[in-house]
Amino acid sequence: MDWTIIIFKTILLFIILVVTLVVALYSTYGERKVAAFMQDRRGPNRAGPFGLLQPFADGLKMLMKEEIIPLTANKRLFILGPSIAMTTALLTGVVIPWGGTFTIGGQEFSLQIADLNIGILYVFAMVSIGVYGIMIGGWASNNKYALLGAIRAASQMISYELAMGMSIVALVLTTGSLSLHDIVTQQHGGHWNIFYQPLGFLIFITCSFAETNRAPFDLPECETELIGGYHTEYSSMKLGFYLFAEYINMFISSAVITTLYFGGYNMPFMDQLGLSPNAVTLLGTAFFFLKIFGMIFLFMWIRWTLPRFRYDQLMNLGWKGLIPLSIFNIIATGVYYFFTELK
Amino acid sequence: MKSLTNRSKVVSDKKMTFMERIYIPAILKGMSITIRHFFSKKATINYPEQKREFSKVYRGQHVLKRDDLGRERCTACGLCAVACPAEAITMVAAERKPGEEHLYREEKYAAIYEINMLRCIFCGDCEDACPKEAIFLTDRIVASDTERKPFIYGKDILLEPLDPQQRIDISARQTEKVIQFKQNKGFAHNK
After folding, report:
1. Of A228, A259, A318, B73, which is the most buried if we count CB atoms within 10 A?
2. Measured distance CA(B130)–CA(B62) in Å, rounded
3. Where is A112: in which H helix or E strand?
4. H/E stretch holding B92
């Protein structure tokens, strides 16, 4: 690997980090606006034009708050919790193909930082470690509500990860590759995976909601029962990190869903436009982000529509609903490919 | 029992059908409702920039009028205080001294005139009772406060400014019809 590639990747890494943070920052604003509009309100509109500076005001407020570490808490783990949540949330963006390739001076630059041949497994690994952030934080707080929230988060994520993994197995059966880059290239020209795996998509998106701890699966942080859930004892920017990690997770899982099921950076009439490859790449990336924003809107739309599940309903849906359904999906996909391959 | 509104639904715990159990139709129905609200007109008014339009005969903070020469119209007859259902008005009358003719129109005037804005219900009965066209309710809003004391408005707040430019317009409430009505001979003070 020569120097230009390394420099390019470093810059790309930085850009993606900044973009992720900015998108997550403005997701908080978007969330409040969407919530307000769906409830016939106007939402934040005082800080700056249309309230666009609201996220910064919120962030500043978080920073200015007093930092409290409870006496009985395990200090190291208490600090480690939000750090893990934030780090793992940011790490997932590495394998997502944010666009095609740029050709500058005869050299190709891929807009994917690392094209791992087991990209999907990497995403899963990161999501699984993300649970530790919540679990450690809730446990180290030495508070019963925080512990209950953490236990709920852990059991919820474990239950839904199973169904999520199995819906991906069916997807891998159709694509024949675990690399996210290959999966996106295969969807070129409108062959989006959602048309081949509608049931798998439904399972996957339901599990994504559960994995990101968002309504209707936001049991770990339900205020009425658990005060704040796993972050009851947290204050200042450590609480900010937890809340922010949720929005980063939402952005990243929107990106993953788009990559897996909606053709990633592919857009309709990509080849017919007659533009230069670099322009197409740029347009593709823009289109990719458009899809991601649509997905984020769906996340918010669902959140402000559905009430929260009860705990037993959550477990029922996960173990008795989604897991058998995803097994059925694998078998159906397998049988279909078995007979089509036979010919 | 028969319900009053006919809008109540009978709740039952029957087994859900397959369509109900997969949730999706119900979720889509809910989402269609929220998206309709997303695009609907918002009821909120951005207050300091936009103000809600008042009714033409809105009854807000009172004003004690002066006549064209700038003399106080009020003669401290006390009819407004008697008419007031909330007993919000009190006054102390005083006699006009020689040389004060440019200040007070009649020989008697109100030395102290106070309305307790916390008691006032803005009914406008004081305005109806007044034989001298001295007190009127205007479209000004009574400002909020954190204490009780400032809500007792004296003449310093209620009285109209002397400057003709700053006179308070009450034409919305003192219409021709109102003046006609007030000249009704049935009223004690018109006899």
Report:
1. A259
2. 13
3. none
4. strand B89-95
CB contact under 8 A, A37 and B38: yes
Do A37 and B37 lie within an 8 Å CB cutoff? Answer: yes
CB-side neighbour CA atoms (13 Å) of A2 = 4
Give residue-wise pLDDT tens across range A71-105: 888 888 888 888 888 888 888 888 888 877 777 77
Q: Give B44→chain A minimum CA distance, Å.
A: 7
Q: Which of A34, A38, A313, A314 to mutate to test the interface with B (most CBs of B within 10 A)?
A: A38
Task: Evaluate whether A99 touches A281 at the Cβ level (below 8 Å).
Answer: yes
Give mean pLDDT, residues A122-142.
85
Q: Which residues contact A282 (CB under 8 A, 6 or more apart)?
A: A99
List the domain boundaries for chain B: 62-190
d(CA A112, CA A269): 22
Look at A40 and B42 and tell me if their CB atoms are within 8 Å: yes
Q: How far is it, in rounded angstroms, from Cα A158 to Cα A211? A: 9
- Predicted TM-score (pTM) of this structure: 0.78
Euclidean distance between CA atoms A307 and A41, whole angstroms: 19
Q: Extract the tokens encoding B176.
A: 């021709």
Which of A37, A202, A305 minimises the CB distance to B30?
Answer: A305
Give chain A positions within 8 Å (CB) of B42.
Answer: 37, 40-42
Chain B nearest C-alpha distance from A50 (Å): 12
Q: Distance from B12 to chain A by nearest Cα, in Å?
A: 19
| pLDDT tens-digit readout, A293-343 | 999 999 889 888 888 888 888 888 888 888 898 999 899 888 888 888 765
Burial of A204 (0-12, 13-18, 19+ CB in 10 A): buried
Nearest CA in chain B to A45: B46
* Element containing residue B111 per DSSP (H, E): strand B108-116
Burial of A165 (0-12, 13-18, 19+ CB in 10 A): middle
Asked: is B62-190 a CATH 3.30.70.3270 domain? The reply is yes
A chain contacts of residue B34, beta-carbon cutoff 8 Å: 38, 301, 304-305
**pLDDT tens readout for residues A207-230:** 888 888 777 887 767 766 777 778
B15–chain A nearest CA distance, Å: 15
| H/E segment holding residue B110 | strand B108-116
Contact check, Cβ <8 Å, A305/B34: yes
Q: Residue A169 and residue B84: Cα distance in Å, rounded?
A: 81
Cα distances (Å, whole numbers) of residue A100 to A106, A294, B12, B33: 15, 20, 55, 38
Structural contact between residues B78 and B89, judged by C-beta atoms closer than 8 angstroms = no
**Looking at the predicted complex, does its ipTM rise above 0.85?**
no
Q: Tally C-beta pairs within 8 A across A and B.
A: 34
